[in-house]
Design brief:
This protein is mainly alpha-helical. Helix content is about 75%, strand content about 0%. Helix 2 runs parallel beside helix 4. The radius of gyration is 16 Å and the shape is globular.
Length: about 160
């Protein structure tokens, strides 16, 4: 069942507002507050329940799996390097993002987020020199870009990869 236009407009505005909030806070404080991740998760689950109620269990499973995989990657990176490379807020945000889009679009989200982050860092290196490549950069804003683009691709362009 495709979503009605008013539902898509409201969902898109809610998603955009939450993603802007996450982006602003993460750039300023290098942290994604739990209340914003909870709002993102609740909004995504609510959207799925309104639009595709039958797929809600799959969306929840995708979110839990995403949380487990990225927590394991975060922990593994820490064990190997002694440094935290991916913040816990980013891990929670990825899990919450999984509630908004088809699980098959998660790689698209990750590709867009990673490419945007690399372009941002490349721009910093060009503008400020090679030392900028070692500076800490929040990943939440780039996850936000990936989620926003993936949501638009799925809902407005119709990219669902023909499976779900």
């Amino acid at each position: 069942m495709e979503a009605d236009v008013p539902i898509l407009i409201v969902a898109g505005l809610v998603l955009a507002a939450i993603l802007v909030g996450i982006t602003v806070v993460d750039f300023r404080r290098m942290v994604i507050p739990d209340f914003l991740n909870l709002a993102l998760a609740a909004g995504g689950l609510g959207f799925q329940l309104l639009v595709r109620r039958d797929n809600a269990p799959i969306q929840i499973l995708a979110a839990v799996s995403t949380l487990a995989v990225f927590w394991a990657l975060r922990h593994g990176h820490f064990l190997l390097t002694g440094r935290i490379g991916l913040g816990l807020g980013d891990v929670k945000m990825l899990a919450a993002a999984a509630l908004w889009i088809s699980p098959l679009l998660l790689p698209v989200l990750l590709f867009i987020a990673s490419a945007a982050a690399l372009l941002f860092i490349g721009g910093q290196v060009v503008a400020a020199g090679p030392a900028a490549a070692r500076s800490r950069v929040p990943f939440g804003p780039f996850i936000a870009i990936g989620l926003g683009c993936s949501f638009v691709l799925e809902q407005f362009v119709g990219l669902t990869l023909g499976v779900l």
